[in-house]
Amino acid sequence: MQNELFSLQGKTALVTGASRGLGQAIAIGLAKSGATVICASSSDGGSIKTVALIEEVGGTAFALAADLSSESQVSELAKNALSITGKVDVLINNGGTISRYPAIDYPLNEFKNVIDVNLNSVFQLSQLIGIEMINNGGGKIINIASMLSYSGGMTVPAYTASKHGVVGITRALANEWASKNVQINAIAPGYFRTDNTQALQDDAERNQQIQARIPLWRMGST
Fold first, then answer.
1. Is 150 noted as a catalytic residue in this protein?
2. What's the pLDDT tens digit per position in 93-123?
C-alpha cells in the first residue's frame, strides 16, 4: 500500500542542483519511487554521476546543464526538459549558491548573482514549467528553502534574502495555482554537510555554535 501511495511511475521530475548533496539525494529518491528524473547542474557533465547512481538502482535519468543566473539558459533548460518525455510532473527547485562576506563589504555583483541563482531562477522555472503543468491538468513544485528563510544568518545577506524570497514565491504561487491542481510547497532543511556549509564546518568556533542549537549536536548528511 505504501509503495502504491508514493509511486511516481509514469511521472517525470526535473531536479536542479542535482550533481551532489541534497539535490543528488532527492533525484535518487524520486527515481527509486519510479520517476524518470532529469538531473540539471550548472556545468556540462555535472550530473553524470547522479545519472549513473540512478541507473544502478534501475531508474531512468537524463542530464542537462544550465547556468541558473542566466535568464536565457534557464529558459533553454525548461524547453529541453519538457522535450525529453513531453512533460514535467514534478519540479524540484534545489539549485543554489552562497557567497560569504561581511555585509559592509558585500560586493553588489555577488549579491545580484546569488539572487539570480537562488530566487529569480526559481520563479522563472516555476513559471515556464508551471504553465505546462496547468495545461496538463496538474503538477507538483517543491522549492528548497533554508533555515535562513526564518532567520538572518551571519555574513550571508544575499543568501538570506534569496531564501526569504523563495518562501514568498512558494506562498504566492500556491495561492494562485491550487485551483489549477498544481501544488507548490517549500522545504527548509537544517544544516547539512555540503559544499554550501563547508566554510562553517571549517570554522571550529562557528561550527560549535551551530551544533549547540541542534538537538542531535551534529549537521545532517546525505
1. no
2. 999 999 999 999 999 999 999 999 999 999 9
